[in-house]
Amino acid sequence: VxxxxxxDTPVTQALGISWLVRDPDGGVVEExxxxxxxxxxxxxxxxIGGRFDIxxxxxxxxxxxxxxxxxxxPVVVDSYEGALCVTTEVPPPEYVEIQHTIYxxxxxxxxxxxxxxxxxxxxxxxxxxxxxxxxxxxxxxxSELEKEGSRLLELKVSRDTTPIFWTNYRVEVxxxxxPLAWNLIIIGVLAVLFVVAIIxxxxxxxxxxYHRKTLDEETKKxxxxxxxxxxxxxxxxxxxxxxxxxxxxxxxxxLLNQLLAEIAPPISPWAIIALAxxxxxxxxxxxxxxxxxxxxx
Length: 297
Prior knowledge:
Elements: E1 2-6, E2 13-22, E3 28-39, E4 44-48, E5 58-69, E6 74-87, E7 96-102, E8 111-122, H1 133-147, E9 152-160, E10 167-176, H2 182-192, E11 200-210, H3 217-222, H4 225-235, H5 241-245, H6 249-260, E12 278-281
Parallel strand pairs: 7-12
Antiparallel strand pairs: 1-4, 2-3, 2-5, 5-6, 7-9, 8-10, 8-11, 9-10
């Protein structure tokens, strides 16, 4: 609370203040008083109170007296009693999942992993040019995680468009390795998306032992040939590419089944374009660029 007082008399005066702030339930949240001396005619003075929490819905009230004279003999020269502010409860964001990308590596990786949940805001989706955000954020995470020696396993993107002037995003990233420098990773992702000025907040980081997902035949049937070939070459890089090119789709799936029955190999770099919207498994009619190279041991 800030209150100004002015000496409107023709003589030098001491100015004093006293106020009481109550919350909507009538509880006292601040009681303040102070004096300032030597104010000539026309001089003013600002009284600045402390800080208090405004954490209840309803009307906060203020009772304030502006004083002259002295602390021993104060004279009330002006006063106010009434509402200080009115607060309302803001409902939590209504997030709707718009994307759930499951990366092929989630079907072969077993080991330490982390799930990071963070939120950030951008301009509303109704503004042209911002719909690309959900698509690009996945690709950017795959790249930034590689810099940390990690691989993206799963990524969920949820969106809340109820605010008028912005859109809330909640992103849940599951990646290999632990611990991970999530602040640097997220800053790198937002920089790629040209939203470096956006403030983000990490809500939770959970460490876990990740167990590979079961890869059933129906899921494998959704994989494009490029995805099947890349997974096979990742698991068995000695396989001649010409051999795979001559195989039918079902033969590729059968070979992948055989390889998946073996122990999962070390991580290899994968550059993948994710499907946006709803729940997607990479490889369904999408252009995929998968590298079969693996780090040297």
